[in-house]
Here is the input.
Amino acid sequence: MSVTIGVAIVRLDNTKAKFLLGWRPQYNLARLTDAAFDYVRAPEDPRVTWYPG
Here is the structure.
């Protein structure tokens, strides 16, 4: 995955963690987007989202 931030390009790669630690991601892209879309914050969570305008 590449993300352009201004002029720099940031590349994210988990190959080293897989090789050295035997790590495997628990979420694939489809599961990640589903989980993010379905997420509901607890009613007692004090964080407030503010949208200007």
Notes: The first strand starts at residue 2 and ends at 5. The mean pLDDT is 84. The radius of gyration is 17 Å. The chain is about 30% helix and 15% strand.
